[in-house]
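FAQ: What does the model actually see?

It sees only this:
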Amino acid sequence: MVQLHVKRGDESHFLFTATVATSIETLTTDICEIYNGRLKIERICSEIPELADHGITLPPNMQGLTDDQIVELKLKDEWEERCIPSGGAVVCVTMDMVKEALDQLKGAVMIVYPMGLPPHDPIRMEFENQEDLTGTQASLQVIAQEEAQLWWASKELQRGKKLQDYIGKNEKTKIIVKIQKRGQGAPAREPVVSEDEQKQMMLHYYRRQEELKKLDEADDDAYLQSEWSDRQALKRQFQGLTNIKWGPR
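And it is asked to produce this:
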């Protein structure tokens, strides 16, 4: 079998095998389908976080509009009630879900490597909790359980207390907590306005400015239609030629 290293420009994409008897027509078609298919997978993977964070995309006629404009125009997303996530719009993560995701990844690796990975392979070491993160960026992100601290409203949640000691006994309360390593001090407070809200406010402000600009331009041209701007109006008034109406009364 001939092994083809497929590249586009200087960028490496994938390896492909074929026999020497394969026609160029078939070879080109197969490689092109795989190339485009891989690009599709990459696009979908890049869009999945957006789907997870914000849900389904608005219809084209609602995109770019503010909530007030959608209400004013009486627009409705007919797919909003149909396309509901199986776990609900808000999914709370459990350790069982994390373990299930790891098991799925482990199963995918076993399909490709049925004999398993060598003991020094970093993926196998991750699966067996034997990973060595020394000198890596990941080592700065991972927090040991004994070093973990939770903060809420600039207050450290002490391990010896209960959650109700800080937020009360309302079970329907929703709060934002931040996790970090012990000794790093209080984390930065949450902004009063979220990033998405700030973008919407800026978009609304920009559109309002454009509307005011158009109104100002309209006012600037309005005088051209006024009587006082007509250079011949005073002359016609002296001659008694104003307010003349033609046609039968």
